[in-house]
Amino acid sequence: MYKTDINKLKEYLPQLPKSWDGKSCILELQDADYNWKQMEWCGWYFEFKVRQILADKFEFPGDKFNNVTFDLKGTINWDIKAKFLNADEYMCLNDKEAIEQTIQLYGCYGVLVAYLIYDYKNHNATLECVYSYLFDRQDLIKLDVLSMFQGKDIKYLMNIDYEHLFNNYKIVA
Fold first, then answer.
1. Alpha helix (H) ranges present in the chain?
2. What SS3 state is found at 8?
3. Which of 57, 44, 49 is closest to 18 using CA atoms?
4. DSSP letters spanning 88-117
5. Which residues pair with 84 in a beta bridge?
6. Is the Cβ–Cβ distance between 116 and 42 less than 8 Å?
7. Which residue in 58, 104, 137, 173 has the fewest CB atoms around it within 10 Å?
């Protein structure tokens, strides 16, 4: 079921810009009146660009469970996250109960993650790669690389402890 989503992501997300100038990105968000005042500009910019690229291929937003609305929906619900490779190793996911509900309904839940290198001096970011993570009822993490950057050196990704990254997330089936 989710493979249709993965194939669309692989086909269309290579259109994402690779270099993100902080000021230009925030001004682009401001022009669109899209969360431009937020401190986490890289995450909002990633979500904004994904929405632009996938607007006619996925539903935005995804399903809502209680007070939680997922970022997008294809055959399953997805969250969109940005993660700096040169920062801490944790990532906050959505509400556990909402995740459990979407897994119950669709069989799995996806997280689309942009991995970035952040230049703290110049407030710029470079998109290194995009991964998709799938959580299913057995609490297995399935990893698909969206092969947008074939041949690119992704040495930073080799040192990521994915189990530690998601250590606070546990599905109770």
1. 2-12, 22-31, 41-54, 96-106, 162-165
2. helix
3. 49
4. -S----S-HHHHHHHHHHHSEEEEEEEEEE
5. 116
6. yes
7. 173
Beta-bridged to residue 9, according to DSSP, are none
Q: What tokens were used for 101?
A: 């509900």
User: CA 148: distance to chain centroid?
Assistant: 14
Q: How far is CA 43 from CA 52, 136, 139, 158, in A?
A: 14, 24, 25, 22
Note the pLDDT tens digit of each residue in 117-131: 888 777 777 777 677
Beta bridge partners of 67: none
Q: Which structure tokens are listed for 131?
A: 């991964």
* Cβ(2)–Cβ(75) below 8 Å: yes
Of 102, 106, 172, 95, give the one whose Cα is nearest residue 138: 172
Q: Specify the pTM.
A: 0.78
Q: In Å, what is the CA distance from 125 to each residue of 28, 50, 85, 173? A: 15, 16, 11, 38
134-165 pLDDT, tens digit each: 766 555 444 444 433 333 333 333 334 444 44
